[in-house]
């Protein structure tokens, strides 16, 4: 097993996707803040002329995020097909509930996966109550979304850091 | 701490870590971590290693305190 193995690198792919989704969700939150309270807020009456009220920042961030998804997914699918060709017995399926980053190659890696999962579990037992406490404050919704994305990033970093210790290359 | 002679006996038999790993059904990394004493193998794997290195499990693994 190498450091470049997709199963080892999977948390890094997750982190990249989360960063792109953070950008998209910023625009999506701003859009929905305008859209949901009142549909009329989408249009302005400018001296008798009805004009569409467009929030450029939200539209721009959604577009940037969607554009970033294109190179991300093209690189991901390339890596995935290369991995599946290289390891026909350890294929990664897009439609599996089993996280591909679980490495169960042999008894040591099963133990390492358990250790990494335990670290993530310990992190969640602390992070979830803390997030609930922060949610008591009347802050912008995007702030809470960012906290949840950050928790997801830290989870992947913890997992990757633990697994990587055992991937020693010659 | 669990000590072992895996590295010494593997070299004596002329096996690489990858070769011994494939013979015993584990990865090269696992053999490396066993040799460094950073991973304690299961009884099943210890028996397989002992078989391929042609020694008894007792000759292959021992606890450090036994040395005293």
UniProtKB/TrEMBL annotation, chain B:
Keywords: DNA-binding. One of its GO terms (molecular function) is DNA binding. Coiled coil: none annotated. It comes from the Bacteria. SUPFAM superfamilies: lambda repressor-like DNA-binding domains (SSF47413). Residues 6-60 form the HTH cro/C1-type domain. SMART domains: HTH_XRE. PANTHER family: DNA-BIDING PHAGE PROTEIN, TRACRIPTIONAL REGULATORY PROTEIN-RELATED-RELATED. This is XRE family transcriptional regulator. It comes from Viridibacillus arvi.
């Amino acid at each position: 097993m190498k450091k470049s193995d997709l199963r080892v690198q999977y948390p890094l792919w997750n982190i990249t996707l989360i960063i792109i989704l953070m950008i998209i969700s910023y625009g999506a939150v701003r859009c929905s803040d305008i859209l949901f309270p009142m549909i009329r807020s989408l249009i302005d009456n400018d001296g008798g002329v009805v004009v569409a009220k467009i929030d450029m920042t939200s539209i721009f961030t959604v577009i940037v995020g969607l554009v970033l998804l294109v190179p991300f997914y093209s690189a991901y699918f390339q890596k995935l097909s290369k991995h599946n060709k290289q390891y026909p017995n350890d294929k990664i399926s897009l439609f599996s509930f089993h996280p591909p980053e679980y490495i169960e190659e042999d008894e040591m890696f099963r133990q390492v996966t358990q250790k990494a999962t335990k670290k993530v579990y310990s992190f969640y037992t602390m992070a979830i109550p803390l997030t609930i406490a922060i949610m008591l404050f009347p802050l912008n919704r995007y702030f809470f979304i960012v906290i949840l994305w950050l928790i997801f990033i830290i989870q992947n970093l913890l997992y990757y850091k633990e697994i990587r210790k055992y991937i020693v290359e010659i | 701490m669990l000590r072992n002679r895996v590295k010494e006996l593997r070299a004596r038999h002329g096996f690489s870590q990858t070769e011994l790993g494939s013979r015993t059904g584990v990865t090269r990394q696992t053999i490396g971590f066993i040799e460094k004493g950073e991973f304690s193998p299961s009884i099943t794997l210890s028996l397989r290693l002992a078989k391929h290195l042609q020694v008894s499990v007792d000759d292959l693994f021992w606890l450090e305190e036994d040395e005293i």
